[in-house]
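Re: export button greyed out
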Amino acid sequence: SSELTQDPAVSVALGQTVRITCQGDSLRSYFASWYQQKPGQAPVLVIYGKNNRPSGIPDRFSGSSSGNTASLTITGAQAEDEADYYCNSRDSSGNVLFGGGTKLTVL
Amino acid sequence: EVQLVESGGDLIQPGGSLRLSCAPSGFTVSGNYMSWVRQAPGKGLEWVSLIYSGGSTYYADSVKGRFTISRDTSKNTLYLQMNSVRAEDTAVYYCARDHPPYYDSSGYHTGGNGAFDIWGQGTMVTVSS
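Workaround output, generated via the alternate export path:
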């Protein structure tokens, strides 16, 4: 199917590690990208490709993939990481898909 | 500074037309893969359309036949022509640039993969009578 599925909400204790997942058939063939979006702001790319971070993104953000599942891991979550996180990828038709988003709460 | 600035958002009646513009600084629209992405109030991100540097275009099923992505090289501007708009087209519309081609441990990657590294601030389109 041409969809990407994310858990609607995830929580993590301050300083702990959290994994946000994204599932979809397209991920068997194409890498996911991950975005962080805070209220009232445009999304920010945090992970792309196999596991690449744009300049300025802290190294506590990392990406991985296995089969039809891509994961974003935040190691040592900070209060400022509280945000909505979206995955996306392309599909075999050349279109781009977005997951529904995961709201991350840092406790 | 590399950035994107959208404009053209407005209140428009159902069935009407509107053209959004996106002007980059620090790079050219013609040399990059460029997309439009929208976000309805309180909802998630939805990809709308993509134009390759070579000119090929792609559309989400929800806008196919109604929206047209284009670019003006002389003005270095990306457009989204929106026709036959519906209430469900109400959203903030972002333009975004695909990450330029790069190498990583898995090989060489061109654009069109949805790795949007530059986003505009968004422009609001409201469809209502």
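Chain B touches chain A at residues 35, 37, 44-47, 50, 56, 58-60, 94, 99, 102, 104-106, 109, 112-117, 119-122 (CB under 8 Å). The button fix ships in the next patch.
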